[in-house]
Write a structure and sequence with these properties.
The protein is an alpha/beta fold. It has 24 helices and 16 strands. 48% of the residues lie in helices and 13% in strands. The strands form two sheets. An eight-stranded mixed beta sheet has the order 1-8-7-3-4-5-6-2. Bound molecules: phosphoenolpyruvate and magnesium ion.
Length: 592
């Protein structure tokens, strides 16, 4: 409560998923709420029918115009076919069957346009959403998206597309990975959404875009927001401040300035920082696209520890061998000979891109995900990707890693496929590399517990702590309701990491961490103390992690790790790491 402001200031506790502070006006993706909320069922009189029909068709026309403008804007910017999504949306606006059914309901049943349209579009979306066919289910999501737009026009509400001059804070019930990826980072200040956790893909993308973000913001809070509202996102502590008083706003501006200073002082430095007692740790970047290389270079990082290649598949047309080859070549060329680890296609779970995953699964996280899909049902895609990688490998130091490994056979079969692809390329007279190091992602308890076996089949390990935590603790990584239990410092997770690091050491293969834990300075001491030699993270996390490493003492980190491994719970384990963080980088610790 403030005396300066007539509306009460309110602080909402949410989950911090990307650090930083954002202060600005809200852009509420109202269409996302509208597509789900039923409007009032109003019976109109015969004399109102004509005007209600006209209102509905005016809304359709306005939506059509809006979509055409968006398509042209995106087409001009991307030139990659992604704007095609708007063509699919335009077809929905022009769907005669659906529009005819709305007209009939208005004319014959005397229903108001909003209600008639809601009932009809919901029926269409529900029918498609219930099908087994992944493609048709995606169309259901399109219908919901478009119907939100039409409803917005029916209600004469302002646009909720971030094609605005001033940068805004995006507020929505949820953002799909493809929606987040499609946002222009120059028009967005941060995100406040309801669903998702710190390791959901929206969160990962927010971090790679360097934007503060919160998840777990209650829907009723989001629904109350309006475009004229100023809010503050505290992405360090997971707070959303509504109607901040001038005093609060000022204090957050100072905090943002202070954080900016601490972060920019950490921007430069070695990519192989040493602890105070002389142990080197390698730092590498996590990237989703060719464009991320520039950001990595700006923080002085040369190598890539994880390229999530599935983001190349995040468009309406599947990337063919040439498109992939060009992308991998650009990444390798941009890395000036530093190692680049590209992960093969990892779809499934919450990464449901397009129609790639085939049938609907009752439990997608335990389903045909990652290497299971590419070996079992999509060898066609796997071959194309491996061929593109083998050809691009000529342009730098390429390594390839396999997601969702649980058996050595998955690595062996992939190796066979690589040899087969190489032979074919050679027969075709195409230039390609003769050796392609193959790594295993350790992201399931099965992989960690059998790391000693897998180590004999892999050239390196990379620990995917996002999934490893999810599968070990039985916590859906995208579910904000159980986000409070998602604790990578749980001794069960730490023990699996330690086991993996020991197996790597015993078999003399390198081990890195490329999950979110690797880029969180809170865990640096524990990971380094457990024997992890490389940490791979989003560009924005490099500075803070480097800073912690330089202030650490390896002997102390080992002791902290040892204590954490036998700690009674996650909080106690984390407290050992936090103590070392406070000692190594007190100004950074004060922000977190
Ligand atoms: C992980 O699981 O930790 C990981 C790095 O992969 P992703 O987050 O893409 O599943
Ligand atoms: Mg993973």
């Amino acid at each position: 409560m403030t005396s300066e402001n007539s509306i009460q200031e309110e602080t909402i506790q949410a989950t911090a998923v990307s650090p930083g502070i954002a202060i600005g006006r809200v852009l509420l993706l109202r269409r996302k709420f509208l597509s789900e909320a039923a409007p009032a069922d109003v019976t109109i009189s015969e004399s109102q029918v004509a005007s209600e029909l006209e209102r509905f068709h005016r809304a359709l026309e306005a939506t059509r115009k809006e979509l055409l403008a968006l398509r042209d804007e995106l087409e001009a910017k991307l030139h990659n076919g992604d704007a095609g999504i708007f063509d699919a949306h335009l077809m929905i606006v022009d769907d005669r069957g659906m529009n005819g059914a709305v007209d009939t309901m208005i004319r014959d049943q005397h229903k108001n346009a909003d209600y008639a349209f809601f009932c009809t579009s919901s029926r269409y979306a529900a029918a498609l959403g219930a099908t087994e066919d992944e493609y048709l289910r995606e169309r259901a999501a399109d219908i919901r998206d478009v119907s939100g737009r039409i409803r917005r026009h029916l209600e004469n509400l302002e646009s909720d597309d971030p094609a605005l001059e001033d940068r805004r804070i995006i507020a929505a019930p949820e953002l799909t990975p493809s929606e987040t990826a499609g946002l222009d980072r120059n028009k967005v200040l941060g995100f406040a959404v309801e669903t998702g956790s710190a390791v959901s893909h929206t969160a990962i993308l927010a971090r790679s875009m360097g934007l503060p973000a919160l998840t777990g913001v209650p829907r009723k809070v989001l629904e109350q927001l309006s475009a004229s509202d100023t809010v503050i996102i505290d992405g360090f502590h997971g707070r959303l401040i509504l109607h901040p008083s001038p005093r609060t706003e000022e204090s957050y501006r100072l905090k943002a300035e202070e954080a900016g200073k601490v972060y920019s002082a950490m921007k430069t430095g070695s990519t192989r920082p040493e602890t105070k007692d002389g142990f080197e740790v390698n730092l590498a970047g996590n990237i989703d696209s060719v464009a991320d290389i520039e950001t990595l270079r700006s923080v002085g990082v040369g190598g890539v520890g994880l390229m999530r290649s599935e983001y190349l598949f995040n468009c309406s047309r599947l990337p063919d061998e040439e498109v992939q080859f060009e992308a991998y070549k650009a990444i390798l060329s941009g890395c000036d000979g530093h190692p680049v680890v590209i992960r093969t296609l990892d779809v499934g779970g919450d990464k449901l891109f397009g129609t790639l995953t085939g049938r609907k699964e009752p439990n997608p996280f335990l389903g045909l995900r990652g290497v299971r899909l590419t070996l079992k049902e999509r060898r066609d895609l796997f071959r194309i990707q491996l061929r593109a990688l083998l050809r691009a490998g000529v342009f730098g130091d390429l390594r390839v890693m396999i997601p969702m490994v649980t058996n050595p056979a998955e690595l062996d079969e992939t190796r066979e496929l690589i040899s087969e692809c190489r032979k074919k390329l050679q027969q075709e007279g195409q230039e390609c590399i003769s050796r392609l190091p193959l790594g295993a992602m350790i992201e399931t308890p099965a992989a960690a517990l059998s790391a000693d076996i897998l180590a004999r089949h892999a050239d390196f390990f990379s620990i995917g702590t996002n999934d490893l935590t999810q599968y070990t603790l039985a916590i859906d990584r995208g579910n904000e309701r159980v986000a409070y239990l998602y604790m990578p410092s749980h001794p069960a997770v730490l023990r699996l990491i330690a086991l993996t690091a020991r197996a790597a050491e015993a078999n003399r293969i390198p081990v890195s961490v490329c999950g979110q834990m690797g880029g969180d300075p809170l865990y640096t001491a524990l990971l380094v103390g457990m024997g992890v030699q490389e940490l791979s993270m989003d560009a924005g996390a490099i500075g803070p992690v480097r800073r912690v490493i330089c202030g650490l003492n390896m002997a102390e980190a080992r002791l902290a790790a040892k204590a954490a491994l036998s700690a009674p719970d996650a909080d106690t384990a984390l407290s050992y790491s936090r103590k070392l963080l406070e000692k190594a980088a007190p100004d950074l610790a004060a922000l977190l």
